[in-house]
Amino acid sequence: xxxxxxxxxxxxRVLTAMVTPFTADGALDLDGAQRLASHLVDAGNDGLxxxxxxxxxxxxxxxxxxxxxxxxxxxxxxxxxVVAGVGTNDTHHSLELARAAEETGAHGxxxxxxxxxxxxxxGLYRHFTAIADATELPVMLYDIPGRSGVPINxxxxxRLAEHxxxxxxxxxxxxxxxxxxxxxxxxxxxxxxxxxxxLPLLSVGAVGFVSVVGxxxxxxxxxxxxxxxxxxxQKATEIHQKLxxxxxxxxxxxxxxxxxxxxxxxxxxAGPLRAPMVELAPEEIEQLKIDLAAGGVQL
Length: 299
Description:
By secondary structure, the chain is of the alpha/beta class. The chain contains 12 helices and 8 strands. Strand 3 (81-85), helix 3 (91-104) and strand 4 (108-112) form a beta-alpha-beta unit. The protein is globular and about 45 Å long.
């Protein structure tokens, strides 16, 4: 198992939801993925989410997902958590992806709320528990109603937390009140899935982040969480405020689009996007440069 795992922080504290690099002709760039993964872990990430939304998972095949997990494990699996995104809106398909991830050697699973078909809370409960039953891997739920159309209600999170392998939640709900209640009642390890709320979520009991901006500011995110856990809230607040232009700039449009543009500006592996995602327009790239520079990112 990868390092820095405790019951309180089962996947560490700082994770980046990694993009999937592609070659110029749109094929999977496994060498680029390994180089990017190594760069991100060297920068201070405890773990990487592979095949998540930022990894353009709706556009990659089952075989590509497995190849990508294998490649990243080879690159950094001995020093970071490699967590495979396996969530879809089809429970049977998600079970296949979960078993494939376990066979490949992934350290954990990220399971997003089923999207588009809007199941009721009982459907969410059965979906998540079926996936958790399918392997021996620890599971991080992913609650993002803005994309999925359905929130995981607090009562459902409390029920799900009773499963021995459901150990964490990635919270992109954007509701500090509901997060406060769910953290207090469920006991799940809570990870911010909304970079702008990284510090506020720590204040109500989160243990770390699953970040998109971690592609460009992992050392700062590490310093923020280290300061907060050491009791230096003033320093954590100063870092949070310094990063505000980065948080804003990286989400002016879809995060994967801005992230790949930012990585290209830094000469790091990224490559093109797969349709229906598109590259940033020239004026959007110029704005991104302004935002990143305002947050202290060197390009």
